[in-house]
Amino acid sequence: MNAPTQGIDPAVFGPYLTRTRWFGGKGRDFTVSDVRRLGVLGDGDGDPTVDVLLVELTYADDGTTELYQVPLAYYTEPEHRLDHAFVGWWEDAEIGWVHAYDALHDRAATRLWLQAFGAAADGPAEAGGLTFHRLPGQEIDTEASGTLFTGEQSNSSIAFGEDSVLKLFRKVTPGPNPDITTHEVLTLADSPDVAHLYGWVEHGDTHLGMLQQFLRTATDGWDLALTSVRNLYADPELAPREAGGDFSGEAGRLGDTLREVHVVLHERLEQTTVSADFVAGQMNARLDAALRVVPLLEPHEPALRALFDRLAGLGDVAAQRVHGDLHLGQTLRTALGWKIVDFEGEPAKTLAERILPDSPWRDVAGMLRSFDYAAHAVERSHDELDEVALAELRTRGAEWVERNQRYFLAAYAGGDLTEDQRTLVTAYTADKAVYETVYETRNRPTWVDIPLAAVARIGAP
Ligand SMILES: Nc1ncnc2c1ncn2[C@@H]1O[C@H](COP(=O)(O)OP(=O)(O)O)[C@@H](O)[C@H]1O
Ligand SMILES: O=P(O)(O)O[C@H]1O[C@H](CO)[C@@H](O[C@H]2O[C@H](CO)[C@@H](O)[C@H](O)[C@H]2O)[C@H](O)[C@H]1O
């Protein structure tokens, strides 16, 4: 079947977007202001037609717009196996009834991307208006079957067997995506600390997705950390260093991995400085915006401003390409050590902000926050405990956090931090916690007390 000629009723996208995990505009009023076709995959010969669409949203609160990539798989009859991914149906003048499903849930549709990558082995290949690129020396299995990853994700990833992973970006910004450009640099440097990049797909100058090495033996760093905390909480007699699942060795190895990644990015991409005054200004601006969304931050505003003032006095700060949104869920423990994934930066930032050189301490701070999250996330599941037992649990959780932060930091820095480095990492940690209060308010309101408690500790003696 050809792609419908009449265009699609934009109204069908609103309800679908708000149902997905990856939609970042939850809780905000918006209208679908435009739907653009970027490309069409599939020759109709037994394949569904896949319409790669860019859906433009306009938010009611501030009039800003965002673009989301929503590839649709079209069928002339309902496909009940895809009911969970149903987007809409309409009558097309030439085709008749069109049943549209989110194509990334449809194996018959996702194989079209893999085949297009297969055709790009000897150089960039055009397919239906999209351009597919491959990196030299990276072989792929074009026959592997695709399975959509489930879980908490900002984008949509499809594993092709145990060979490769296709990540299609959902929120799209014109221009190069740092997940691709950073992975490209690390892959060409043969870094052992990331999944190697196999290729990417673009429309004009806009990156739409990337194909990378599937890490077969990977376990999520967040899950491993939660297991360690659970082991600790299971036996009230044990200190973190004695508990079966002590995480400190892994925390140290994570610090080594992050340092190695930073070294490659420092050597191969722009090295510069940013004025600490400018960075503090950004943190203050982010706090201004956060206060409008999370009024519970108000009592902590003076302590946060004082910390950012201290940062502003540091002069020039070394800056380079960084990860930008590092947390345990962005780390995978494989048989060959830790790997860091997802170099896209914070989903809430504009692309222009995300590709700016930044202090490596931002990434360090992200991991420090994540250790804190792990202990509190497990604590939340212990609502059977009375106040005394809960206080005891919290004390032991805080010991776990302190121990793993210390091992991580020591491995990363290779020694004690200077006074200026301490100020930097404390300010970045506070800035991250402020960001998290907004993220949680919008996405997981019952978790907001985790970053709020961290913000409260900043002003505490
Ligand atoms: N190369 C890979 N091999 C295996 N699993 C991966 C790979 N890359 C990412 N993952 C898994 O997919 C999840 C989502 O990946 P991520 O890049 O963080 O996507 P998103 O941008 O949607 O958050 C990760 O938490 C990890 O568990
Ligand atoms: O992985 P993403 O790029 O989508 O990152 C966003 O979502 C994360 C949650 O999945 C969020 O991370 C926060 O929660 C984590 C536990 O779920 C915790 O480990 C992190 O420290 C905490 O920041 C991340 O902030 C957000 O950008």
From TrEMBL:
Highest taxon in the source lineage: Bacteria
Pathway recorded for this protein: Glycan biosynthesis; glycogen biosynthesis
Alphabetical list of Pfam families matching this protein: Mak_N_cap (PF18085)
Family affiliation: Belongs to the aminoglycoside phosphotransferase family.
Enzyme class, UniProt record, top EC level: transferase
Organism name: Nocardioides plantarum
Entry-linked SUPFAM superfamilies: Protein kinase-like (PK-like) (SSF56112)
Protein name, per record: Maltokinase
The Maltokinase N-terminal cap domain, residue ranges: 16-106
SUBUNIT field: Monomer.
Keyword Cell inner membrane set for record: no
Keyword DNA repair: no
